[in-house]
């Protein structure tokens, strides 16, 4: 196989464009509203009535006719949320109104309680108001029939509340894609094992299962494949039954790194097998038949980083997300920072609790899981720059 090395941005774009262009069927199911958080909407949600359905007051005070002010008005009643004022406000009249109550017919503005002096059934207002003041007009937020959420939207609490507000108790969402997780390596033993000093517990199956679930997939953990062609092939074939296959380990250039051989024998198309990042440089992305796969490098930091940067986008697209997001923002460094240019680095760091300072965490390289677990952010070091001074902003990613 020809080796293809890409920059971080090129690789990311290639993953998104390739998966987006693939004709993947996206089955739909219906779930109860409170089963829907985290799922991806598969239908448009439209307003069942104007929002708000009537003009409402947004203050406690008096519903008036703006043209009457300033002046002294006669109070002809009151209206609170959940009721309507049956009559109409005539010139020279006012109705006491509470926040959220529908504006009485005839009134065109609300004067705040604090701006009026009430004496019995009289109310004196010594200021002018504009028509529409302190009123949320009918349909100001949406018109009946307006599409409020489009298919491809990930559902969080605000979207669930919106669905509730338009009377929906069930929603059509995309089925969760299945994601096979296939760890490889002769040294990898189950978490329950008492490992020999030369053995490593299978932590990647756990980080990946959590990352997959969080990104909207259904993780399926396969047995660990020994670094052996036949066994790896058997497990890869079983992993290709899923909607997406994630392999961990076995993609470096070592003599026993058999993953690419096996995939190639199965007729894989490879899009790239190296990305100019650290951790995670020997990352493989390809497809066998209709199933995309990632060969994630086995070191724990490499596996986590490459999943978040690349595999997550593929999974989200398979899950029906319209626009997979990857956002970096900039935060001032708490100390000087230097790296060797040429690779984009994603390094464990601590973002201060107020979000205003980023401090890199000392780490021993891609195997340093303790450092990754202490991090609440990843510092993103540009491949083209070597040195940042304390106080200078640097990019950060929140995993
Ligand atoms: P590899 O990418 O196969 O060269 O693996 C690199 C290193 O990653 C290995 O030496 C292991 O220490 C570690 N590693 C590989 N697979 C796993 C796994 N499933 N869980 C934890 N660590 C792993
Ligand atoms: Mg290995």
Topology:
Layout: E1 5-6, H1 8-21, E2 28-32, E3 45-46, E4 56-57, E5 61-64, E6 71-79, E7 93-97, E8 109-112, E9 117-119, E10 122-125, E11 135-136, E12 147-149, H2 157-165, E13 170-174, E14 178-183, E15 188-189, E16 200-201, H3 204-215, E17 218-221, H4 229-239, E18 244-248, H5 259-265, E19 269-272, E20 274-275, E21 277-278, E22 284-288, E23 291-296, H6 300-318, E24 328-332, E25 337-338, E26 344-351, E27 358-360, H7 369-374, E28 377-381, E29 387-388, E30 393-397
Parallel strand pairs: 1-20, 6-7, 14-17, 14-18, 15-16, 18-23, 21-26
Antiparallel strand pairs: 2-13, 3-12, 4-11, 5-7, 5-8, 6-10, 9-10, 19-22, 22-23, 24-30, 25-29, 26-27, 26-28, 28-30
Helix pairs in contact: 1-6, 3-6, 4-5
Magnesium ion is lined by residues 184-185, 227, 249-250, 298.
What would you say about this model in short?
20% of the residues lie in helices and 30% in strands. It is an alpha/beta fold and 399 residues long.
Main features:
binds magnesium ion; six-stranded mixed beta sheet; 399 residues; binds adenosine monophosphate; single chain; elongated; Molybdopterin biosynthesis moea protein, domain 2; Molybdopterin biosynthesis moeA protein, domain 3; 30% strand; alpha/beta; Molybdenum Cofactor Biosythetic Enzyme, Chain A; 20% helix
């Amino acid at each position: 196989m020809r080796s293809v090395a890409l920059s971080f941005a090129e690789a990311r774009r290639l993953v998104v464009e390739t998966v987006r262009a693939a004709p993947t069927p996206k089955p739909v199911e219906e779930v109860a509203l409170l089963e829907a958080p985290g799922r991806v909407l598969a239908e448009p949600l439209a307003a069942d009535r104007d929002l708000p359905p009537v003009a409402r007051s947004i203050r406690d005070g008096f519903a008036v006719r703006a043209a009457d002010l300033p002046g002294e008005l006669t109070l002809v009643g009151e209206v609170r949320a959940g009721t309507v004022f049956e009559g109409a406000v005539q010139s020279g009249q006012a109705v006491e109104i509470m926040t959220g109550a529908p504006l009485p017919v005839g009134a065109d503005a609300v004067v705040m309680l604090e701006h009026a002096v009430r004496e019995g059934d009289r109310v004196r207002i010594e200021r002018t108001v504009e028509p529409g003041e302190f009123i949320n007009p009918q349909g100001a937020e949406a018109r009946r029939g307006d599409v409020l959420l489009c298919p491809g939207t990930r559902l969080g609490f605000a979207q669930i509340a919106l669905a509730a507000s338009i009377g929906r108790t069930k929603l059509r969402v995309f089925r969760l894609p299945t994601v096979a997780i296939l760890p490889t390596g002769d040294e990898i033993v189950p978490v329950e094992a008492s490992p020999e000093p030369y053995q490593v517990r299978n932590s990647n199956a756990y980080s990946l299962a959590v990352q997959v679930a969080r990104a909207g997939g259904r993780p399926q953990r396969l047995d660990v494949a020994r670094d052996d062609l036949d066994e790896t092939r058997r497990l890869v074939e079983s992993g290709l039954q899923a909607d997406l296959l994630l392999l961990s380990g076995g993609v470096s250039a070592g003599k026993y790194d058999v993953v690419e051989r096996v995939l190639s024998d199965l007729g894989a198309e490879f899009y790239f097998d190296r990305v100019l990042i650290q951790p995670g440089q020997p990352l493989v992305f390809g497809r066998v038949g209709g199933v995309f796969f990632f060969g994630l490098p086995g070191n724990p930091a490499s596996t986590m980083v490459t999943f978040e940067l690349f595999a997550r986008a593929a999974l989200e697209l398979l899950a029906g997300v319209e626009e997979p997001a990857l956002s970096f923002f900039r935060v001032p460094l708490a100390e000087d920072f230097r790296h060797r240019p040429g690779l984009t680095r994603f390094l464990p760091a601590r973002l201060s609790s107020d979000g205003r300072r980023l401090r890199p965490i000392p780490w021993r390289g891609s195997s340093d899981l303790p450092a990754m677990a202490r991090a609440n952010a990843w510092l993103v070091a540009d491949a083209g720059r070597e040195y940042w001074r304390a106080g200078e902003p640097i990019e950060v990613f929140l995993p």
